[in-house]
Amino acid sequence: MIVVAIVGILAATAVPSFLHYIAKAKSTEAMTQVEKMYNGARIYWLEPHGTPGAISPLPPQFPASKAATPAISCCASSGGRCMPSQGQWQDPTWIGLSFSLDDPHYYQYEFISSANEFTARAIGNLDCDAEFSTFGMIGRVDSINGVFGLAAVNRVNELE
Question: pTM, whole model, 2 decimals?
Fold first, then answer.
């Protein structure tokens, strides 16, 4: 009887810790992919771009904004993971950022840009409740045309 009580106490403390570590492991996907978009945007700014037949390149710019991809939460898919679809990542914005996902993933990704600023963002709902977690990185252009931003991913409600 005492052994059963001890096992019950151990299980009661171990299960929440285990679930916390699983959520933390899943959130590394978002941080890694947001950093990949951030770096892609910085490289895009530095590369010369032009239109076919143009003699001079366009001024430095970021790719156009792109709404959350995939369009619906991954909770709608079986297992709470979005299945990869190469068609989703053929938009000029994703191509310009050199960004695509080839494996099942937990988050939706979006890119918001203006003339002098961009935000790379991941939005997810790991336990498919009403709360979402958001990971993002912001980049800005400084006065000498360099792109800068914080070196860390901003996390809101990371493990929701």
Answer: 0.85
